[in-house]
Every structure is written in C-alpha cells, then in structure tokens.
Amino acid sequence: MTGLDDSRATGQEKRVAWVVEEHCHLCRRCLAQRACRIRALMRVDEDEAPVVDVHRCRGCLLCAVACPYDAIVPT
Ligand code: SF4
Ligand code: SF4
User: Fold this and answer.
1) What is the reported pTM?
2) Which atom of ligand 2 is nearest to the CA of 61?
3) How far apart are CA 47 and CA 4, in angstroms?
C-alpha cells in the first residue's frame, strides 16, 4: 500500500518530513540521513541537500531531531 493509499484510507493527509534546502548546510555526513532507519531520506551527492521519499517516509521525524540546523520540518 502506498502513502497515497494510506491517506485515502484514513481520510487524512499523511505527515511526512520535508527538507528545507535553504536551511541545509550540506554537511559532509548527513546526521538526518543516518537517523532514518528505513532509508527514506536519500542524497544523490554531497553538493545537494537530501530528499525525502514521501512514499517510504513514516513521518516519525527522527531525521528532524537529528539535523543540527533544523533543515527538516513536517509537512
Ligand atoms: S539535512 Fe541537516 S544534517 Fe543533513 S546535510 Fe542538511 S543540514 Fe546537514
Ligand atoms: S520522518 Fe522518519 S521515516 Fe521520514 S525521512 Fe525522517 S526519519 Fe525517515
């Protein structure tokens, strides 16, 4: 079942994490990414901020807690 299907089933919008690129310091080691155990936070290369796979994200916000620059917020 996808995130979209979950939303339809509950009638509520699914809460997911969102990376605010302007706040991201492009850390060499992204602590937020390391905090996401289901690997819903992906980073293609070090020159870009990580992105959230909204279909995988469970909205736990462990990544937001781990980011030292508050670059991740809930939607
Ligand atoms: S999301 Fe946070 S921890 Fe990850 S690179 Fe950006 S500022 Fe650093
Ligand atoms: S909210 Fe949770 S599941 Fe979603 S990207 Fe962050 S740590 Fe991963």
Assistant:
1) 0.85
2) 1
3) 30
